[in-house]
From TrEMBL, chain A:
<dbReference type="InterPro" id="IPR029061">
    <property type="entry name" value="THDP-binding"/>
</dbReference>
<keyword id="KW-0479">Metal-binding</keyword>
<comment type="similarity">
    <text>Belongs to the BCKDHA family.</text>
</comment>
<comment type="subunit">
    <text>Heterotetramer of 2 alpha/BCKDHA and 2 beta chains/BCKDHB that forms the branched-chain alpha-keto acid decarboxylase (E1) component of the BCKD complex. The branched-chain alpha-ketoacid dehydrogenase is a large complex composed of three major building blocks E1, E2 and E3. It is organized around E2, a 24-meric cubic core composed of DBT, to which are associated 6 to 12 copies of E1, and approximately 6 copies of the dehydrogenase E3, a DLD dimer. Interacts with PPM1K.</text>
</comment>
<comment type="function">
    <text>The branched-chain alpha-keto dehydrogenase complex catalyzes the overall conversion of alpha-keto acids to acyl-CoA and CO(2). It contains multiple copies of three enzymatic components: branched-chain alpha-keto acid decarboxylase (E1), lipoamide acyltransferase (E2) and lipoamide dehydrogenase (E3).</text>
</comment>
<dbReference type="InterPro" id="IPR001017">
    <property type="entry name" value="DH_E1"/>
</dbReference>
<protein>
    <recommendedName>
        <fullName>2-oxoisovalerate dehydrogenase subunit alpha</fullName>
        <ecNumber>1.2.4.4</ecNumber>
    </recommendedName>
</protein>
<keyword id="KW-0630">Potassium</keyword>
<comment type="function">
    <text>Together with BCKDHB forms the heterotetrameric E1 subunit of the mitochondrial branched-chain alpha-ketoacid dehydrogenase (BCKD) complex. The BCKD complex catalyzes the multi-step oxidative decarboxylation of alpha-ketoacids derived from the branched-chain amino-acids valine, leucine and isoleucine producing CO2 and acyl-CoA which is subsequently utilized to produce energy. The E1 subunit catalyzes the first step with the decarboxylation of the alpha-ketoacid forming an enzyme-product intermediate.</text>
</comment>
UniProtKB/TrEMBL annotation, chain B:
<comment type="subunit">
    <text>Heterotetramer of 2 alpha/BCKDHA and 2 beta chains/BCKDHB that forms the branched-chain alpha-keto acid decarboxylase (E1) component of the BCKD complex. The branched-chain alpha-ketoacid dehydrogenase is a large complex composed of three major building blocks E1, E2 and E3. It is organized around E2, a 24-meric cubic core composed of DBT, to which are associated 6 to 12 copies of E1, and approximately 6 copies of the dehydrogenase E3, a DLD dimer.</text>
</comment>
<dbReference type="GO" id="GO:0005759">
    <property type="term" value="C:mitochondrial matrix"/>
</dbReference>
<dbReference type="Pfam" id="PF02779">
    <property type="entry name" value="Transket_pyr"/>
</dbReference>
<keyword id="KW-0496">Mitochondrion</keyword>
<dbReference type="InterPro" id="IPR033248">
    <property type="entry name" value="Transketolase_C"/>
</dbReference>
<dbReference type="GO" id="GO:0003863">
    <property type="term" value="F:branched-chain 2-oxo acid dehydrogenase activity"/>
</dbReference>
<comment type="function">
    <text>Together with BCKDHA forms the heterotetrameric E1 subunit of the mitochondrial branched-chain alpha-ketoacid dehydrogenase (BCKD) complex. The BCKD complex catalyzes the multi-step oxidative decarboxylation of alpha-ketoacids derived from the branched-chain amino-acids valine, leucine and isoleucine producing CO2 and acyl-CoA which is subsequently utilized to produce energy. The E1 subunit catalyzes the first step with the decarboxylation of the alpha-ketoacid forming an enzyme-product intermediate.</text>
</comment>
<feature type="domain" description="Transketolase-like pyrimidine-binding">
    <location>
        <begin position="72"/>
        <end position="247"/>
    </location>
</feature>
<keyword id="KW-0560">Oxidoreductase</keyword>
Length: 447, 393
């Protein structure tokens, strides 16, 4: 079976090296390249007991007569792919994606704008202005690098710490704020806690709190998208903690067996709230699990925006071309607390956090790359910081003044249609609120 | 799941000739051994475990308004619905364990050959994956029809159903939804299914706003309601009474048709007692209604609820206002069973109309037993007795 797969891959590989330079493949050319892969190749095996080779349907292997357990390799595990060193210097010039100044500046500005928005919204929760918030400190590189490598039509399933992906795609500050404030402009109609963003226009599926539930969903979406033959991929983000959930195992296995054009992007940031990685898993991280599912896997430096970009770009290209899932484990560090409900000094040292903030940060590494090329000066930095703070504060003040959505919206969208039962409850709610109106904050809500 | 597979090996239908050491009851060795056992040598026929079913299926008259009909049992009516769907909706896909070869209950026979491997396919053995995958496919715009091999095995998917599918539209402000997801699962007692092949889990899902739960009583109902679920733009769970798969045979329209969801059906009008049931139990209650008329002179109004969620409160209450008495019966355990919800709502709305306390005849609060099934199920005698008590209250 492995030999069959290799030969099919080689066959496709030949086609693809040629087409790699081509932009804008038409759908019909894609159809030629992108058949339903090895699933069509059934292993019609004739069992032959005269051969001294295992005949088991379950595995393709040789016999061995030495009793030996396979040792999991956690001391020198899967290596970490990077393009820049910690100072932002390119290590191997062939790996520099050589993006334009405009593109790189955009990366930088999106990462820093996200950082600014995080600071302001975190503070606003501390002041009781919003109920809850989660920052993205330290992980901005994983968001922007991967988002930039995708097509805008690619469908994104996230966990909750991927706001930069949405920001990169152009989700307005007003809409971030509207969701956090749950005001009448919130696309989600005020139903969820802050940071549970979603955007149909930007192909970003609305976040839900249960962890890892998005992983098998991403596999299903990728399967449906594969059948449409429209050169679209799906990306699914999750943390190393969520990867312990049964849903993660389900999603990996389904995507591999059903040959889905899907990128699994694991943000391994060292902690799941207070649980460090050595209490989360005993193997070599998440990347080492990929081969167990028959999945191509890679580990990258998540704080190196070019490494993230290169890996995601290649994974996306091949996932769509070959109809198979890819696993990218982006190593990074969660500089902030898990959320506004967490104080991480309870379980980790300030020194540890400072190391990552000062010595290995995606934003500073990219800035060094830019300043080396003369693309960004101190003045640029000062004026950009000032401008981004201003735009964030404007959006913030506007969102705060806005009324909340009408309580009518408590009862809609449970089903596509209003049901008689819900209608009755809605009417009962209004009758009650009318009678006891002084006890309900009606003035803060739209009618 | 291996248990399920063993459950369904039908040696008589197998084309394989199994010979060799210890390979099943059809080897000459085993048959010879059984012949030598005492009960056989005395000339008395060996005792079989199979008993008579606790109901007899009553077919409805063939429908005339949906075009030509064909004789079908319930699994064939399901296949017909799925066939119609795959034919008319190019995005439709059917998946689950063992659906490719036709399914352990033969509901998907022939569909893979007819419509292709990309549309009718096996998944790995993982219910949370099946439902999660189905949700994602629906979110991306496909009509996703997921099969859970037995309703007893739906629980690993409970989080995906309750926390995700049911809430997808609401939590996203209607930006996203998985309305084109339908989950099908065999449901209910089957004579020997025991704990894990007999369950009726509708009550767990009745408590979950955002999904629909539907249970048919017959092949005609199964096809029409399943097509309605598939067309419905909300995630639906469709429980199929497995004991009816072969036992229920009717004239079923060949063309697609839908029956309304959330609309209970009055099967027979009456004046003394309202009787509410769904699925297999309808056929039990039909017989109970006859017994009540014959032995007690009591006229029963029999209602098939069909949709458990959202349920048709109006039709039930209208009937109870007329009769003043209500009996609800289901196989699932009585505590927290769906009869409790119906009972509670009806007493709220029809309190002054009631002549007697509302009666529930259900399974006991035990896991579904194997050898004790005849004692466990809410059979016609228990229901008859309940009516007698209500009349004499």
């Amino acid at each position: 079976m492995a030999a069959a797969v290799r030969s099919v891959n080689k066959m496709y590989g030949v086609c693809f090296n040629a087409s790699r330079q081509t932009t804008g493949l038409t759908a019909s050319r894609l159809l030629q390249h992108r058949a339903f892969r090895v699933g069509a190749v059934r292993r019609q095996q004739s069992f032959d007991s005269t051969l001294e080779k295992p005949q088991f349907p379950g595995a393709s292997a040789e016999f061995v007569d030495e009793l030996k357990f396979i040792q999991p390799n956690v001391i020198s595990g899967i290596p970490v792919y990077r393009v820049m060193d910690r100072q932002g210097n390119i290590i191997n010039p062939s790996q520099d994606p050589q993006l334009s100044k405009e593109t790189v500046l955009n990366f930088y500005q999106k990462m820093t704008l996200l950082n600014t928005m995080d600071r302001i919204l975190y503070e606003s929760q501390r002041q009781g202005r919003i109920s809850f918030y989660m920052t993205n400190y330290g992980e901005e590189g994983t968001h922007i690098g991967s988002a930039a490598a995708l097509d805008p039509s690619d469908l994104v399933f996230g966990q909750y710490r991927e706001a930069g992906v949405l920001m990169y795609r152009g989700f307005p500050l007003d809409m971030f704020m509207a969701q956090c404030y749950a005001n009448a402009d919130d696309l989600g109609k005020g139903r969820q806690m802050p940071v549970h963003y979603g955007s149909k226009d930007l192909n970003f599926v609305t976040i839900s709190s249960p962890l890892a539930t998005q992983i098998p969903q991403a596999a299903g979406a990728a399967y449906a998208i594969k059948r449409e033959n429209m050169n679209r991929a799906v990306i699914c983000y999750f943390g190393e903690g969520a990867a312990s959930e049964g849903d993660a195992h389900a999603g990996f296995n389904f995507s591999a067996t059903l040959e889905c054009p899907l990128i699994f992007f694991c943000r391994n940031n060292g902690y799941a709230i207070s649980t460090p990685t050595n209490e989360q898993y005993r193997g070599d991280g998440i990347a080492a699990r990929g081969p167990g599912y028959g999945m191509l896997s890679i580990r990258v430096d998540g704080n190196d925006v070019f490494a993230v970009y290169n890996a995601t770009k290649e994974a996306r290209r091949r996932a769509v071309a070959e109809n198979q899932p890819f696993l990218i484990e982006a190593m990074t560090y969660r500089i902030g607390h898990h959320s506004t409900s967490d104080d991480s000094s309870a379980y980790r040292s300030v020194d540890e956090v400072n190391y990552w903030d000062k010595q290995d940060h995606p934003i500073s590494r990219l800035r060094h790359y830019m300043t080396t090329r003369g693309w960004w000066s101190e003045d640029d930095e000062r004026s950009w910081r000032k401008q981004s703070r201003k735009t964030v504060m404007e959006a913030f003040e506007k969102a705060e003044k806005r009324l909340k959505p009408s309580p009518e919206l408590m009862f809609t969208d449970v089903y596509e249609e209003m049901t008689p039962n819900l209608n009755k409850q809605r009417e009962a709610m209004w009758r009650h609120v009318q009678q006891y109106k002084e006890h309900y904050p009606l003035d803060q809500y739209e009618k | 799941m291996a248990a399920a597979a063993r459950f369904f090996v039908r040696g008589a239908n197998s084309k394989l000739s199994i010979s060799g050491v210890g390979t099943g009851t059809h080897s000459p060795f085993a048959a010879a051994l059984l012949k030598l056992s005492p009960s056989s040598s005395s000339g008395v026929p060996t005792k079989t475990q199979r008993r008579h079913a606790h109901f007899s299926f009553q077919a409805d008259p063939a429908p005339t308004q949906y075009g030509p009909t064909e004789k079908m049992n319930m699994f064939q009516s399901v296949t017909s619905a799925l066939d119609n769907t795959l034919a008319s909706d190019p995005t439709a896909v059917i998946f689950g364990e063992d659906v490719a070869f036709g399914g352990v209950f033969r509901c998907t026979v022939g569909l893979r050959d007819k419509y292709g491997k990309d549309r009718v396919f096996n998944t790995p053995l993982c219910e949370q994956g099946i439902v999660g995958f189905g949700i994602g496919a629906a979110v991306a715009g496909a009509t996703a029809i997921a099969e859970i091999q037995f309703a007893d095995y739906i629980y690993p998917a409970f989080d995906q159903i309750v926390n995700e599918a049911a809430k997808y539209r609401y939590r996203s402000g209607n930006l996203f939804d998985c309305g084109s997801l339908t989950i099908r699962a065999p449901w209910g007692c089957v004579g020997h299914g025991s704990l894990y092949h007999s369950q009726s889990p509708e009550a767990f899902f009745a408590h979950c706003p955002g999904i629909k739960v539907v249970i048919p009583r017959s092949p005609v109902q199964a096809k029409g309601l399943l097509l309605a679920c598939i067309a419905d733009q909300n995630p639906c769970i469709f429980f199929e009474p497995k004991i009816l798969y072969r036992a229920a045979v009717e004239q079923v329209p060949v063309e697609p048709y839908t029956l309304p969801l959330s609309q209970a059906e009055v099967l027979q009008e009456g004046s003394d007692v309202t009787v509410v049931a769904w699925g297999t139990q309808i056929h039990v209650m039909r017989e109970v209604a006859d017994m009540a008329q014959e032995k007690l002179g009591v006229s029963c109004e029999l209602i098939d609820l069909q949709t458990i969620l959202p349920w048709d409160v109006e039709t039930i209450c209208k009937s109870v206002v007329k009769t003043g008495r209500l009996l609800i019966s289901h196989e699932a355990p009585i505590t927290g069973g769906f009869a409790a919800e119906i009972s509670s709502s009806v007493q709220e709305q029809c309190f002054l109309n009631l002549e007697a306390p509302i009666s529930r005849v259900c399974g006991y609060d035990t896991p579904f037993p194997h050898i004790f099934e005849p004692f466990y199920i809410p059979d016609k005698w228990k229901c008859f007795d309940a009516i007698k008590k209500m009349i004499n209250y």
